[in-house]
Write the C-alpha cells for this entry.
Amino acid sequence: MPGTSAPDFTSLDALVRPRSVALIGASDDPIRIGGRPVSYMKQRGFAGQLWPVNPNRPTVQGLPAFASISALPAAPDVGIVAVPASQAIAAVDELGKKGCRAVIMFSAGFAEMDAAGAAEQDRMTAVAKSHGIRLLGPNCLGVFNASINYFATFSASFEKGWPIPGRIGIASQSGAYGTHLFAASLDRNLGTAVCITTGNEAEVALGDVLGWMAQAPEVDVICAYAEGIRESAKFISALKLARANRKPVVMMKVGRSALGGHAAQSHTASIAGDDGVTQAVLDEFGVVRARTTEEMLDIAYAATRRIYPAGNRMGVLTVSGGAGVLISDAAETAGVAMPEMPADTQARLRTLVPFCAPRNPVDCTAQVTNQMDLIAPFGDAIAAEGGYSSILAFWSQTAAGSSMGPRLLVEMAAMRAKYPDRLWVMSMLAPNRVKDYEDAGFLVFEDPSRAVNAIAAMGRFGDAFAAPEAATVPLPQVTLPRTTPSEAVAKALLHQAGVPAVPEHAASDSEAAVAAAEAIGYPVVLKILSPDILHKSEIGGVLLDVADAAAVRQGYATLLERAKQHAPNARIEGVLVAKQIKGAVEMAFGVLRDPVFGPVAMVGLGGIFIEVLKDFCLRRCPFDAAEAERMIRSLKGFPLLDGARGRPKADVAALAQALSALSAFAVAAGPRLAGVDVNPVLVLPQGQGCYAADAVIEVG
C-alpha cells in the first residue's frame, strides 16, 4: 500500500546463512529427523559451529553434545527444533533467552491439526516475536544453502544426490514438494543453491523468503510453490525487489483461497474469483506462472542464461517444414511474435536454395545436410537482418550423428559467438551433444513446443524488467456513507472522484420525474431508486426510451408497482431519471476487496457480456491512466472500442482516465468499501467521453 516502508529481508540471514547452528533434539541416528541435519552437515563439511543438544548423550554422531540450550557455549545464529510439539514452545523461549536470532521448527502438531493446535502456534509466534526471533515453520522441512554446505533439513532427497553448483533458489510452502523440485532439478542437471520451505508460516511467510532470495547473491532465478498467499505486503515488496534486481520468478500457484462473504455479495468478486486476483498480481510484477513441474524447470533452465529480451521477437531456423508449422502454432498460443524476414533477405536466400521457405520460420530444408556451408549464411541472415531477439534452431537428430554433428556444432557455435546478446535455443535429439551445446551458450530442448514456451517466458521477464516503475496515483478525499447507498448517491460519489456519470436527477414523485425529464431532454431512462435493490434489471426496474411526460408518469407508477411486487421490504427513494445515451459501446467497471491484496479493479465488456464471455482484466489498485489503457487494450473485445467493422473509434482515453479514477477511489475509500459495480459504462466516440449509467457501491 502507498506509504509503507520496504521490509528488511536480510533479517533472514541468520536462518539461511548462519555461522553457528544448534540442533535441539539431536539424534545419534543419522536417518532420524533429529539426526539427518547433523549427518548432512558433517558429510558436506559445514564450516560453522554445529552444536547438538541432547540431555541423554555426551556425544551425537561424534560431536560433543550439550545437555540443554542454556549450556551452549554461545548464542547460536539459528536453532533447529526437532522435539515433540509439547516441548517446542519452551525450546523457542530458551533459545530466545540465549540470544538466538532464528529458529527452524521441524515439530508438527500445530495449526495444521485443529483449533487447539492453532492457539498453541499463536503462542509460539508470540514467544518468538518477544525475543526478536525469525521463526520458520512449524511443520516445515527446513532449509538448505549448498553454497556454504548448510543443510538444516530432514529431507531424504539427498540420498538421490547432493545439489550441484548453480544459482536457482526454491521457495516452497510445501516441504515435500520443495524437495521434489530439488530432486527433479538434479535429474535435469540444474544447480539449486538454496531451498527454503515455510510450512505453517507462523511468522516467516513466502514473501519473506522470496524477498531474501531477491537480494541474495547466491540466487539468480527463483522457483516458488504456493498454495495460498497469507499476507500481501512482504509478498508484493519481494516481487518488486526481484523485478528491480532482474531476478525472474516462476511460480506454481495451486488451490484457491476463499474471498469470504464478499464473493456472494459482490458481482465483480463472483466473476473474477480469487485465482484471477492472484494471477493479476503475478502479472503485475512479471511473475511467470508454471502449470507443471516440467514447465517450471524448463523456464528456470532457460532463465539461467540471464538473457531476457524485452519486446521479444523469435526467428526460427529449421530443416523441417512440419516442425516450422508446429513451432508457429506454439508461438501463437504462447504469444511470441514471429515477424517475417525482410523481403530482400528472403530473395537472397532463395538464390542459395531455390526451394527453401525463408519467411519465418526459415526452412533451409535438408539441403544443408549436403551443403553444410549453407548453415552460416542462413543463420547470419536470421541473426543480422531479421531483428529477432530469440532464435530457435530445429535440427532433430542431425546433431547426434558422427557425420554431421561435429560440423554443425562448429557452425552454430560460431554463429552464436557473433551474436551473444540473442537467446539461442536448439531443438534436437542428441543427448550425447547437449553439454557441448550448453557449454557453447545454447539452451537445448528435445521438444520444440517446450522450447517456445521457455522463450516466451524469457520475453515476459524482459518486458517486466524493462517496464518503468508504476506512477504514483493521487488519491481523492472519500467519505463513504454509513450504509450501502442508492444508485444516485453511488454515482454522485464516483463522479466526485473522477468517474463521470450520465446526467440524471432523482425524483420522489411523478411530477418531479416529469420536470427532471424535460430538463434533461427526451428520451430518458427511468430506474427504481433504492439502496436495497442493487440489480434493478432483474425485477424490471429499468425503463428505456421514455419519450414524453405521459410516459414518464406511467413509467413512475410501473416501477413502484414492480418494486412493491418483487421487493416489498425494500426502501424506495423514488425514481432516477437519466439521459438516454445512444451510439455508445457498453463497458463495465468493478472493484472487489480481496482479503489478501485489498482493492482490485476490473474492466470488461458491459451488459451481460462480462458474465457470458468472461472477457475482463484485473489490476491491484491504484494505477494510472496508462496502465488502465493497457488493461482495456488487453481485452479480446477491444476491437469494439477500436472501430471494428466501420464503427467509430470510442473514447478509450476517457475510459482509461475513468478507470484509473475508480482505482484511486477504491484505495481512498478504505476497508469499509466492500465492492463497486459500474455497469454499463457508456463509451461515446473519440473525444466525447464516457459515462457511468449505473453504479452500486457496497459498504461493509
